[in-house]
Design a protein that fits this description.
Elements: E1 4-8, H1 13-24, E2 30-34, H2 39-49, E3 56-59, E4 62-65, H3 67-75, H4 79-84
Parallel strand pairs: 1-2
Antiparallel strand pairs: 1-3, 3-4
Helix pairs in contact: 1-3
Length: about 80
Amino acid sequence: MQAVKMYTTQVCPYCQRAKSLLTQRGVTHIEEIRVDLDPEAREHMMSITGRRTVPQIFVGDTHVGGCDDLFALDQRGGLVPLLNG
């Protein structure tokens, strides 16, 4: 299974929804990067994604996007194959 990295904040309902979906799809470990605690991490997230909002989700080297993007990918049937590499 591909590594999953998620830029998050402590109080983020969209982050929780995204984590829940990923867990349902078999992900057992998510590398969480808390941008509310680390301004440099937020700057890095914005520079590599072009977005300011969380979550920002990566599966392997692929930037999936935010929570809505993750759910849309799953509805199209693309999330599980991406996770499986």
